């Protein structure tokens, strides 16, 4: 395991190991687009990570872990202080992990196992003994973990705005005027490029953005206002419909 500073250059592929764990406490940080020959389990002890993967957007709060397969281009951005954890895995040796990017729910057992693996010494022998048992439990929990719909595909059509993930997308009629295309055209493009209607896409964007804001300990009222909800209760109802959980149960926040 290596504790990293924000400006540390680290290449897990250069170590020639099957499992590499790292940890860091990062403030504002942008990894830039990059990729690894090793697969990556990325999670946090606190704070939220915004991950962009080939025109897809993901918000990763402490209650979830993302699996990024080997050779997948991605970019990780952190606005506030984040308790960053990463486990790199040689998928040539560990073959049971998914071939696609997935976001998984983290139960207490999986969280404890991932933390143990992330802070283990580089020279840990993962092929035998207690370390192998720990790794086996972690892989079993990952296989059975609930997959979360937290990857939002971004439109690529040149007629559409370049969504940064920061500003609330406007209602369809306003967006169509700004984009210089009809509402039907916009809806068709979104369905073709994202698999969602514009309204569905906008709602999913609001959900992901709310996760980021919750992770930053914003109040329910400020989040409801920022995301264009008429009231706090309207936001709570929306969040529960999208996630099956209230905001406070999902990520505790201040009043």
TrEMBL record:
CDD domains: cupin_NimR-like_N
Keyword terms of this UniProt record: DNA-binding, Transcription, Transcription regulation
Domain HTH araC/xylS-type: 172-253
Keyword Isomerase: no
Pfam families: AraC_binding, HTH_18
InterPro entries per record: AraC-bd, Homeodomain-like_sf, HTH_AraC, RmlC-like_jellyroll, RmlC_Cupin_sf
Protein name per the record: Helix-turn-helix domain-containing protein
Protein's organism: Serratia aquatilis
């Amino acid at each position: 395991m290596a504790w990293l500073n924000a400006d540390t250059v680290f290449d897990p592929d250069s170590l020639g190991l099957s499992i590499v764990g790292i940890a860091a406490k990062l403030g504002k940080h942008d990894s830039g687009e990059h990729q690894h020959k090793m697969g990556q389990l990325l999670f946090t002890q606190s704070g939220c990570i915004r991950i962009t993967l080939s025109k897809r957007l993901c918000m990763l709060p402490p209650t979830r872990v993302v699996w990024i397969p080997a050779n997948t281009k991605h970019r990780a951005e952190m606005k506030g202080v984040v308790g960053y954890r990463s486990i790199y895995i040689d998928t040539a040796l560990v073959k049971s992990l998914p071939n696609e990017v997935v976001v998984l729910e983290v139960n207490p057992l999986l969280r404890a196992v991932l933390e143990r693996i992330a802070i283990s010494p580089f020279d840990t022998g993962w092929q035998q003994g207690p370390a192998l048992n720990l790794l086996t439990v972690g892989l079993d929990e990952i296989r059975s973990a609930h997959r979360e719909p937290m990857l939002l595909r971004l439109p690529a059509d040149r007629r559409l705005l370049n969504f940064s993930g920061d500003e609330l997308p406007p209602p369809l009629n306003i967006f169509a005027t700004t984009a210089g295309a009809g509402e039907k055209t916009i809806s068709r493009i979104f369905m073709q490029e994202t698999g969602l209607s514009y309204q569905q896409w906008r709602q999913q964007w609001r959900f992901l953005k709310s996760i980021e804001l919750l992770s930053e300990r914003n109040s329910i009222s400020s989040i409801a206002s920022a995301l264009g909800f008429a009231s706090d209760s309207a936001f709570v109802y929306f969040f529960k419909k999208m996630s099956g959980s209230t905001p406070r149960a999902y990520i505790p926040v201040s009043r």
